[in-house]
Amino acid sequence: MSNSLQDPYFLRDPYPAYAKLRSTSPVQAIPTGSGGHNSYLVTGYAEARQALGDPRLSKDTAAFFADKPSRRNLHPAVAQTMLAGDPPRHTRLRRLVTKAFTTGAVTQLRPYIAQVTDALLDHWPAGGEADLVAGLAAPLPVIVICELLGVPETDRSEVQRWSAELFAAGKPDVIDAASHAMADYMASLISAKRRQPGDALLDRLISARDGEDQLSEDELVSLAVLLLVAGHETTTNFVGNAVLALLQHPTELERLRDNPDRVPTALDELLRFDSPISTATFRYATEDITLGDTPIPAGAPVQVAPGAANRDPERFPSPDQLDLGREAGGHLAFGHGIHRCLGAPLAKAEAEIALRALLIRFPRMRLSVPSDQLRWRHTRLMRGLASLPLHT
Length: 392
Known about the structure:
CATH 1.10.630.10; alpha+beta; single chain; about 50% helix; 12 strands; three-stranded antiparallel beta sheet; five-stranded mixed beta sheet
């Protein structure tokens, strides 16, 4: 899979390669390129869902790499987030975060999301050229999550840059440096908020309690980094991939353009069709297990590919067809099980508001370059466009 990142055809459209792998076996060994060891790639839907919910597949990266030499210098706040942990630690942290991240928060944010969306689109020229990624898909979720966490406006461009650099596949020094910059910034922001408390999510995390339990300083920094990065990277890709999919399926685009109120029910199919997460974060087998019909030895890394699983014809007939009438609620774009994306409601709200505004304000938008000239981000985990040039 690592070599695939250098293949522009795979970056542009990984689904034929995923389909070929799945037809051979929905779970198969992939050489890691070091010491003759294998990792296991999961491309089938049933097997991916099983893997995402199997407690024998650990996400405790610190335990896995504890006895393995490494030249990396990733900041612990980034290397050991809630996402890279198992129960009971993961359960405890998620419970404390959920207490601060109330279910009503997204509803309360909708007017602000709409306001930011309109302000960004006000800069788009009618009948001119615009880049969907730079002009909407990237800044919108950054502004929203920074506002939610309480990141000052003057710091947001740097925060966005560090976040993007954390996914710079093939550039370990860039990733490591960004991890330290982001963690150091969040530590200083938390310190400032302790001196002068506010009512942002980060302030609520500082004071969050579950009985006598509360977050330590290291946990606060780690959660702040995770929420900020996870709170916008996926949404940026979600919006970009969704708009491209609609532009490439004019009949489906017309259905939404004629009735923008159908956007909320279209989101799951758009997520299924081109998932913003190509490969889920690291897992490894803590004991010998069988996934599908494939035996996996203890200690072996397992890569679950939601992007591939969401195109499994055993679960979604005619999977390469975008069908906004499809019942796609079982997709794995947000994961499954105890690690399912905590921010899924926020991502959906942002995408819904952004898509509805685009359809209403720019009903004749179209690609301004051939689709085979679009640039995709070089990252193993995420699938997203570097830019999406449009004629408005």
